[in-house]
Amino acid sequence: MSPFAHALSIFVPIYGIWQAFRHFTLIDTVRRKVDPAHGIDALTGAIGTGIWWLTFTHYSTEPIFVALDAIELTAGAAVIVYGQRALNGYWRSRPGPPVAEGMTQLDWVAISVAASYALFTLIGVLAGPAS
Q1: DSSP secondary-structure letter at 10?
Q2: Which strand (E) or helix (H) includes residue 88?
Q3: d(CA 62, CA 82)
Q4: Over the stretch 10-68, which tens digit does the pLDDT of each residue have?
Q5: CA separation for the pair 44, 81 (Å, rounded)
Q6: What residues does each domain of the chain span?
Q7: What is the rounded CA–CA span in Å between residue 15 and residue 7?
Q8: Which of 24, 7, 21, 10 is nearest to 87 (CA)?
């Protein structure tokens, strides 16, 4: 499967959460091979992904949905940070030459898109008519 199609699997109900569980299990496995004291819980990653998925499936500026957007962004960011910290720990602990850490252009694009979405949603709620 192509990486792009694999990433899109997150939008398939239940299957995307299973994929997240498998990814976090793999990260935990490789991390514990080089540093047995520091692993991650795959179920936590899957639950965070599930929360993100449940709150991502709406588009509205009603206050309850804006609150769900905040939960979505928090859950999505927490899942990414949780997995990335474990992955970075693996790269630092593994044998071999050091790997340069840093953000790629694609990382910056993804963060910019997410921040723009959050900003425009907030502006839309604040500038919209009062109910």
Answers
A1: G
A2: helix 63-93
A3: 30
A4: 778 788 889 889 989 998 999 999 988 888 899 988 888 888 777 766 666 677 777 77
A5: 12
A6: 3-127
A7: 11
A8: 24
Output the six-digit token pair for 29.
Answer: 């496995």
CA atoms of 80 and 24, how far apart (whole Å) = 11
Distance (Å, whole) CA 13 – CA 8: 11
Helix (H) or strand (E) holding 92: helix 63-93
Please report which helix (H) or strand (E) contains residue 18, including its range: helix 15-34
CA separation for the pair 3, 99 (Å, rounded): 22
| Residue 103 token pair | 């953000």
Q: Side-chain half-sphere of 31: how many Cα atoms within 13 Å?
A: 20
Amino acid residing at 35: D
Query: For residue 13, what is the DSSP state?
Result: T
**Cα(58)–Cα(53) distance, rounded to whole angstroms?**
10
